## 1
Amino acid sequence: MDKGYENERFESLSIKTTTANKFRKYCRKISKSQSMTLLMMIEFFEDNKISPMESMGTNMETLERLIKKRINGVIAIMKDIEKNQTKPTVTMMQSLFKEAEPKRKTLILEKKDFKKNEKPHFHEERKDANEH
């Protein structure tokens, strides 16, 4: 039985034999009862505003335009999020990390308070090491 329709009574419809056979074969193919198959078909046409009398060409073009508009809308939303949320947040985080970094001290390689005539000892040693 069809869920939700157990208590409804049956009605008969008069349709041509070839159409009835084709419809029954389709119902078996999708594993639904004849009532549910017909109901699904009617709802499909109503929901999608499609008439079996008109061509699908114009409706498919309309559907394609609608999908493109929605995709463009999603892209615009993502760009807005990136511009107004992601980039400012990244900039703020980077500035916080720059302030939190320990300041690097310069290495002392030679004494700066030696007498003008006096040469530091380590320079002489380096010259000797380079000459050999």
Note: Residues 56-100 form the longest helix (45 residues).
## 2
Amino acid sequence: MNEVTHQATCVAIDGRAILIEGEPGMGKTSLALALIDRGAALVGDDGVLLEQRGGRLWALPHPNTCGLIEVRNVGIAAMPCGEAPVALLIMLDHAAPRHVEGPTVTQRAGIALPSLTLWPDSPVLAIRAEMALSIHGLPSHG
């Protein structure tokens, strides 16, 4: 499969990518910045390329914005970026359920991904995202 452009922000933690989706202004980049501050690596901000490789979905930086992240009220910042297999999809939404049994399964570019909806205004959103990856994310290999 060829690469497809996908509207999302993406970071990688220990070689596993979190695809962050949500409406404009929901805090996708803010979550990415908080995760980067905690050791994550940027894949792409406000748009990535998705590609199937060996039955896994990979997120790659979009060539038009590779290494760039837009920091609201600050401007465009440059930072290293890379690619990684997507292990988890996080949707930011104020209607996120308080209790969940586990992740739902969401298709992106023909690949099933575990998916969770998180409330975007949490002061510990980055910690929740890391825990979600740890508990529900796809393994590094397989």
Note: The first helix runs from residue 28 to 37.
